[in-house]
Each structure stands twice: as C-alpha cells, then as structure tokens.
Amino acid sequence: MNFQILPILIVVLNLLSNCLWAQTEIKDPQITGSLWRYEKLQSAFVGSRNVDVWLPSDYQSNGSVKYAVLYVHDGQNLFYPGVSFSGAEWGLDEVMDSLSRVGLIRKTIVVGIWNTPKRLLEYTPENKVLFKDSTKVNQVKWDLKPMALSNAYLQFIFEELKPMIDSQYATKADMKSTFMMGANLGGLISLSALCKYPDQLKGIAGIAMQWPSIFQEKNEAEVQAYIDYYLHYLPNPALHKIYFDVDGSARNAWNMRQQSYMDEHCFANAYHSTKSFLSLVFADNLKQESEWRKRLAIPILFILKP
Prior knowledge:
Elements: H1 6-20, E1 24-26, E2 34-41, E3 49-55, E4 68-73, H2 92-101, E5 108-113, H3 119-123, E6 128-132, E7 139-143, H4 150-168, E8 178-183, H5 185-196, E9 203-207, H6 220-227, H7 229-233, E10 241-247, H8 253-268, E11 277-282, H9 289-292, H10 297-304
Parallel strand pairs: 4-5, 4-8, 8-9, 9-10, 10-11
Antiparallel strand pairs: 1-2, 2-3, 3-5, 6-7
C-alpha cells in the first residue's frame, strides 16, 4: 500500500461513517433534555428504521461521566406526540429527567427503537414449543411463525445498534449498565432478549404484558408450552432484574392467566427478592400510552436504581 494515501483513506472512511450515522436534533418544546434521531438506520438483519437517542439535560459528552443505556421498543411513542402512532406519548423524557435530577436512578441515556410494519414478527419471540398431545404419546414440535423476525431483530440491537451507540456516546458498555423496556409485545421481546443475551443485558421491564394473541385460538396447554421456554432460559437472578405489569381487568383475563404462569417460572428460578423481581397488576386500561405514563416511574425506579 502507498502509505502517503493512508491518511486520506482514513479521513474518507471517517466521513463515510459519519454519513451512515448522521443525526438530526429534534426540536420540540415538549421534549425535556435533548433528542437526536438517526433516520432510516440500515441493518444487515432487518429493515431500516428510525432510532431516537434521548440525552438528559446535564449530559456530558467529554467522557467525564459515563452513562447507562436503556433501550426501548416502539421508539416513536416515547417522547412527544407528533410522531406517536396513537397520538399520545409515554413522557419518558420527563420521568427520566425528574428521577435523575434527585439521584433516584443512575445517569442514563435512552435509545428509542422505532417499530416498523413488521412489528408483530419482530416483537414475537420465536420460542420452540415442545408438548405432548392429549394421549401423552406423541411429542409435537411447533414453531411460532415461519416468517418470524425476532431473532434477527435482537441481532440488529446487540450486534449493530449497541456497538454504534457505545462508540458515539459516553456510555458504560458493560452488562451491568444495559437495560431494555417495552410495552405489550415490546415487553415480551425484552424478556426474550434477557434470556438470549444475558451477558449483555442487566434488566428488563415489560409494561402491560401481552402474550401472543395467536395463542388465544389454541388450548391453554399449548399456550403454557410456549411460556415453558422461559423456565429453562431465565438467567441468574443474582445478576439480573425483571419487572412486569399487567392489566388486571376482566377483559384481560386470558393475559392475566398467562402472566401468572410466567411469574411461577420466575419464582421457580429463584426470582424471590424484590431487588430482582417485581410483577404488578393494575386494574385499568394499560393498552394506552396515557395510562402507562402515570406509572412509568415504577419500572424505571426498579430497573435503574443505583
């Protein structure tokens, strides 16, 4: 190689990297802190999507302070209503900022991963289900969906997005400083991420947990066979945190039963301490962002406590 060309090549590669990871600051009076957007971020595993990065108002970019990172699904619904598909937002920036200012949570940045039209396929874990038929003779193997994309989606997060975030921001890249949260199926894919990447993820929060609706057409044994996957793959409770909440109203009885079954698996895996496990029931409409924001401080405090 001509070593006179090498410095020019390095400059070109840096410029290309900056182009690939170009950010735009989102200006909105409703945003507390600052919000930066990567538009149509490309991936080798899944389709492109926007990714928002929220920084607290006292964020230090010089590396004097290192920040934990909270990855959150349905990223367009988190910070301001202008892009939310429901017209309402979680108010995550206000909650994070207020708790951080008084030292109740560790210093943290938030990465909001926008969903795509393939949300159902990306957020529904591809658990392999083994169960016996009613005669207890034939063993049956059932795969959730031949077109499922959840494993690819998690590869995007842990193999592409996380390294990029850690290279661009003053973060603590270790497992103990990495967290994930989501609502409905976003909570379910967060649980799957904890089981598949326990060496990279400290804790997760699932708000208004929703088990795959495809199972409502199937019998209870088959539903629970799907959930049994987690009995075998939940990571060490001494190192990890799990938070769930669920809508306890009568209309949500099916999800309540499945969540109770999942809670039993957590207990069976020694998630006994309130430091490692919390599962709550709220008897109102947890399928609305306006309801979630009323109690958003609870899971944030639980998983991000210093």
